[in-house]
Write a structure and sequence with these properties.
The chain is α/β, with parallel strands linked by helices and 251 residues long. The chain has 8 helices and 10 strands. It has 2 domains: 162 residues, Alpha/beta knot, CATH 3.40.1280; 65 residues, Trp Operon Repressor, Chain A, CATH 1.10.1270. Helices cover 36% and strands 17% of the residues. The termini are far apart. The structure holds 6-chloroguanine.
Length: 251
């Protein structure tokens, strides 16, 4: 899968893309990341990438022409197909479903907005999707672009050590992940739940299912409303609610 990133700050990406799982995915040829400096496509002698907004007001606006020429160049005169994404706090909020959809594309072009915004003509004519990573404002689209590359790359076959590990991820099935423990089984009086040491795989599996549901119920009840639960999960959720009521009654 190919990622093209259009940015005024290509150096920002060096660290996050040169370590760990993303580095391995690049080395193994599963992903290809191409960084394009928007400033290389400016057309005046001062290399101006931004300008004052028409109509006045605070802040600067990224100019339409450098982004156009950058897009034209990387898509071979707009002949190569790509999904063009503008990173902006006004966009659709990124979630695991969107990540799954994006991981099925061949080529993503991520346009990092900056300053007060990007000339609207880019959005109107060259952008397929506007994406935000949450309801807060960042200084630019670079960190959101890194977030998208990371989240999408780990969905691709061969990127994680075990492709199965994705299946238990928080959000993958619409609920949160279960809690994890490793050795030692007791540390300064803090113990690992006994069931995990029992060797009884069925009991472990049931405990994990229930813990995942319990966490989701307590921390993110909004997710449960959106997720279709199996009959087993519904039964476990009834148990959880009863147990929690018991706790409250005893207080
Ligand atoms: Cl994509 N850009 C900026 N500047 N701020 C954000 C964002 C994007 N998503 C959340 N906050």
């Amino acid at each position: 899968m190919k990622f093209d990133i259009l940015t005024l700050f290509p150096e920002m990406f060096e660290g996050p893309f040169s370590d760990s799982i993303i580095k391995n995915a690049r080395d193994n040829g599963i992903i290809d990341i191409n960084l394009t400096d928007i400033r290389d496509y400016t057309t005046d002698k001062h290399n101006t990438a931004d300008d004052y907004p028409y109509g006045g007001g605070a802040g600067m606006v990224l100019k339409v022409d450098p982004i156009y020429y950058a897009l034209e160049d990387i898509t071979d005169n707009f002949k190569k197909k790509s999904t063009n994404i503008l990173l902006t706090p006004r966009g659709e909020k990124l979630d695991q479903n969107m990540v799954k959809d994006l991981s099925n594309k061949d080529r993503l072009v991520l346009i990092c907005g900056h300053y007060e915004g990007v000339d609207e003509r880019i959005r109107e004519n060259f952008v397929d999707l506007e994406v935000s990573i949450g309801d807060y404002v960042l200084t630019g689209g670079e960190i959101p672009a890194m977030v998208i590359v990371d989240a999408v790359a780990r969905m691709l076959p061969g990127v994680l050590g075990h492709d199965d590990s994705k299946k238990n991820d928080s959000f993958y099935n619409g609920i949160l992940d279960y809690p994890h423990y490793t050795r030692p089984s007791e540390f300064k009086g803090m113990e690992v739940p006994k069931v995990l040491l029992s060797g009884d795989h069925q009991r472990v599996a049931k405990w994990r299912k229930k813990q995942a549901l319990k966490r989701t119920y307590l921390m993110r009840p909004d997710l449960l409303k959106k997720t279709k639960l199996s009959e087993t999960q519904k039964e476990l959720l009834r148990e959880i609610k009863e147990e929690l009521e018991g706790v409250i009654d005893n207080e």
